[in-house]
């Protein structure tokens, strides 16, 4: 019986399947951060349980951490008392259980979904979980990776397993070639606009097709990252030479004979010919344009040249109400174009688009330009490693000379719980993953888009189709 | 966890689809290290609007939220069911739920009840016409009963149902799997070690 990539990983991790119970699924790697873990550690403490596999667990600080400049002592100052307590709690918990933790500002600290791959911890065929819905990011390596709640964080800490009902599968095939100025971010925004934010509920995505195969690992991560925005807890891409090349030589990658053995195993993982999926969507990369969202969920997206839809077009009352509410919040009118709409803030960062290739693309776009008068642009690298690399390449100077802010690593304005936030009524073009009401700051309004669209909009001070600038500047924009 | 007993409560209608966890509990309330004081954050930004249903005196006694489809989408924060429970909700009724929210709710005794569109509309109509009217929820028979006697069946996986009815704690259940886990680890060595190489 031919199997999908998902089924192979699932089957290899079922510890047991007691009658009338979900499967007990083994977890190879558990990622932990400060926001969703404290109550789980409390649960363990109350029961007198120690972490079962502390060295299959890694912790970092990212959500409530400031991205403001370091002080004279070289440390990043944390002024929010609750954040101070939360960060200290993480360190204490990790020390108590022997879990390695990357503290704020240290060499390997960064967004949890950026550091796993860059350290070589994320590998094909693994099961990876984290108390964070964007854990789907790691699926880019052909790992089954999904977000869990805090109760489940406690389950994994205590037993290295989870009780899971087997999800259905959903193939998303994207064939063809992206046009200049169109990126991986536009692919995933198009997918979500197509199926809606609940479209993948109960399913695991597998992204296939020539357009996906031609993407770099970092671009694949951008796509898998937003699987949850289509309702799927996980999104997978089969491992191939691109995957192996990315992993080889990273700190935690297998070495020597172990490497050969690992690669031989990884080559067995791609879905078998004839394997079937429960659902399928097919998109043509050739026809994709830069995408932008107009509403208050990531499914409310359109090609950047289109106009805001009219709630009257919906016969379903609850759909109509949702769009009415979204447009009222966004202060947009049906039929209005977004091109030319004013922008107050541009955010380049988040676990979706804060890796070195994203920053290179953004720097290439902004070089020789300035951020428009009255626009605030933040560039927030995904990790300290990305930050060092960008600085070694001089990218930070390009951003600063253009008038953008170059920040420390973290989630920053994607979730706006660290002080980096929009003011009520402001409009942002953001490379992050969620445009929910208040997501980037209470009353703030978010247009989700690619790094190219974000930078083009920063330069002009209004929402801008990056293709006009790509053509004008005639630089090579490889698919990010 | 306490066993979940049958209960009757009145409804709070919120027929908006795709209500995300950032609305249920905004991120600025996530800096806590415990589960307390989350009631204050529950739908806090929407509650700034005097017209919002939770500010409507007609629905002050409601303990069952009737929401549009895909309720609880977005983040994995378990603070969402914690906040809803702290605010006083015992169940949420929708036509379907986001996966992580549903799992988190089941682990906290907040019943995510899935009904068909017709029943959903009947419940919204009931809430509109008779805000004080109570519906009866019985997990054992997996039914919602309206005041007129109309019954609607709702699905739930048998394991979650047993856990809720008998107050079985999932972590305790998993701990009992230790022999199987140990055996599995023999044939499935650690793929990575997170100590810095």
Structure overview:
The complex is a heterodimer of chains A (480) and B (197). Chain A has 480 residues and is α/β, with parallel strands linked by helices. In chain A, 32% of the residues lie in helices and 16% in strands. Chain A has 16 helices and 19 strands. Chain A has helices at 5-12, 38-47, 81-97, 112-118, 150-159, 184-195, 210-213, 217-225, 241-247, 257-266, 317-330, 356-366, 384-392, 395-402, 451-460, 466-473, and strands at residues 14-16, 23-26, 29-33, 57-60, 101-102, 127-130, 144-147, 161-164, 168-175, 203-208, 234-236, 279-284, 291-293, 301-303, 345-348, 376-379, 405-406, 427-430, 445-448. In chain A, the strands form five sheets. Chain A has a five-stranded parallel sheet. In chain A, α2 (38-47) links the parallel β3 (29-33) and β4 (57-60). The longest helix of chain A has 17 residues, at 81-97. The radius of gyration of chain A is 22 Å and the shape is globular. Residues 476-480 of chain A have low confidence and may be disordered. Chain B has 197 residues and is an alpha/beta fold. Chain B has helices at residues 21-24, 79-87, 99-106, 117-129, 158-166, 170-175, 178-187; strands at 7-14, 62-67, 91-94, 111-114, 134-138, 143-145, 151-153. A seven-stranded mixed sheet of chain B has the order 4-3-2-1-5-6-7. In chain B, α1 (21-24) links the parallel β1 and β2. The termini of chain B are far apart. Classes of the chains: A alpha/beta (480), B alpha/beta (197).
How widely separated are the two ends of chain A?
Answer: 36 Å
Mean residue pLDDT of chain B: 96
Total DSSP helices of chain B: 7
Main beta sheet strand tally, sense and closure of chain A: 5 strands, parallel
Distance between the termini of chain B: 42 Å
Give the largest interface.
A-B, 87 and 59 residues
Q: Cα-atom Rg of chain B, whole angstroms?
A: 19 Å
The chain-level structural class of chain A is alpha/beta
Q: What is the assembly state of the chains in this entry?
A: heterodimer
Task: State the share of residues found in helices of chain B, binned by percent.
Answer: 25-40%
For the largest beta-sheet of chain B, the strand count, sense and barrel status come to: 7 strands, mixed
Number of strands of chain A: 19
User: Uncertain segments of chain A of ≥5 residues (pLDDT<50)?
Assistant: 476-480
In DSSP terms (H or I, runs of 4 or more residues), the helix count of chain A works out at 16
Shape of chain B: globular
Order of neighbouring strands in the sheet with most strands of chain B: 4-3-2-1-5-6-7
């Amino acid at each position: 019986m031919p199997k999908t990539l998902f089924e192979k990983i699932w089957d290899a991790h079922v510890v047991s399947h007691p009658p009338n119970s979900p499967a007990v699924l083994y977890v190879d790697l558990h990622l932990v951060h400060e926001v969703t873990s404290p109550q789980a550690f409390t649960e363990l403490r109350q029961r007198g349980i120690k972490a079962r596999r502390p060295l299959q667990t890694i912790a970092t600080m990212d959500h409530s951490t400031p991205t403001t400049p370091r002080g004279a002592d070289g440390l990043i100052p944390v002024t929010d008392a609750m954040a101070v307590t939360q960060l200290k709690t993480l360190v204490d918990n990790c020390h108590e259980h022997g879990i390695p933790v990357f503290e704020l500002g240290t060499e390997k600290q960064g967004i949890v979904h950026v550091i796993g791959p860059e350290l070589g911890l994320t590998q094909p065929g693994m099961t990876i979980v984290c108390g964070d819905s964007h854990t789907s990011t790691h699926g880019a390596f052909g790992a089954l990776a999904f977000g869990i709640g805090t109760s489940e964080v406690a389950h994994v800490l205590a037993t290295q397993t989870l009780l899971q009902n087997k999800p259905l599968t959903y193939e998303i095939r994207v064939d063809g070639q992206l046009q200049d100025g169109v990126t991986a971010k536009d692919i995933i925004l198009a997918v979500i606009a197509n199926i809606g934010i609940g479209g993948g509920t109960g399913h695991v995505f597998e992204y296939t097709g020539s357009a996906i195969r031609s993407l770099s690992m970092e671009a694949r991560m951008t796509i898998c990252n937003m699987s949850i925005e289509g309702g799927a807890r996980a999104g997978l891409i089969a491992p191939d030479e691109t995957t192996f090349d990315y992993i080889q030589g990273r700190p935690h990658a297998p070495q020597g004979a172990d490497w050969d053995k690992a690669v031989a195993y990884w080559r067995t993982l791609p879905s078998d010919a004839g394997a079937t999926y429960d659902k399928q969507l097919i998109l043509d990369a050739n026809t994709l344009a830069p995408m932008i969202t107009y509403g208050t969920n990531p499914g409310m997206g359109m090609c950047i040249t289109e106009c805001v839809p009219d709630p009257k077009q919906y016969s379903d009352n609850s759909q109509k109400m949702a769009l009415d509410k979204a447009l009222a919040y966004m202060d947009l009118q049906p039929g209005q174009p977004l091109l030319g709409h004013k922008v107050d803030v541009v955010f380049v960062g988040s676990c979706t688009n804060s890796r070195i290739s994203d920053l290179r693309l953004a720097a290439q776009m902004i070089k020789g330009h300035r951020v428009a008068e009255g626009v605030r642009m933040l560039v927030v690298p995904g990790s300290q490693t990305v930050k060092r690399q960008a600085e070694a390449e001089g990218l930070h100077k390009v951003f600063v000379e253009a008038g953008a802010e170059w920040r420390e690593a973290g989630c920053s304005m994607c979730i706006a719980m660290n002080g980096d936030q929009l003011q009520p009524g402001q409009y942002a073009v953001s490379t992050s993953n969620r445009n929910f009401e208040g997501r980037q700051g209470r009353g703030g309004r978010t247009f989700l888009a690619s790094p190219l669209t974000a930078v083009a909009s920063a330069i002009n001070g209004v929402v801008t189709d990056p293709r006009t600038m790509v053509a004008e500047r005639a630089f090579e924009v490889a698919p990010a | 966890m306490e066993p979940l007993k049958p209960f009757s409560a009145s409804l709070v209608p919120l027929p908006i689809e795709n209500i995300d966890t950032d609305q249920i509990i905004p991120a600025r309330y996530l800096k806590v290290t415990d589960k307390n004081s989350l009631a204050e954050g529950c739908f806090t930004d929407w509650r700034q609007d005097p017209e919002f249903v939770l500010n409507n005196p007609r629905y002050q006694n409601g303990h069952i939220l009737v929401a549009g489809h895909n309720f609880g989408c977005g983040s994995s924060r378990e603070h969402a069911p914690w906040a809803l429970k702290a605010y006083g909700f015992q169940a949420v009724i929708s036509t379907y739920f986001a996966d992580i929210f549903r799992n988190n709710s089941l682990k906290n005794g907040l019943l995510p009840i899935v009904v068909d569109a017709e029943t959903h509309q009947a419940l919204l109509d009931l809430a509109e016409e008779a805000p004080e009217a109570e519906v009866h929820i019985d997990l054992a028979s997996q039914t919602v009963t309206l005041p007129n006697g109309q019954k609607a069946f709702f699905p739930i996986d048998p394991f979650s149902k047993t856990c809720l009815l008998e107050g079985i704690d999932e972590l305790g259940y998993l701990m009992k799997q230790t022999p199987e886990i140990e055996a599995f680890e023999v044939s499935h060595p650690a793929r990575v070690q997170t100590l810095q190489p």
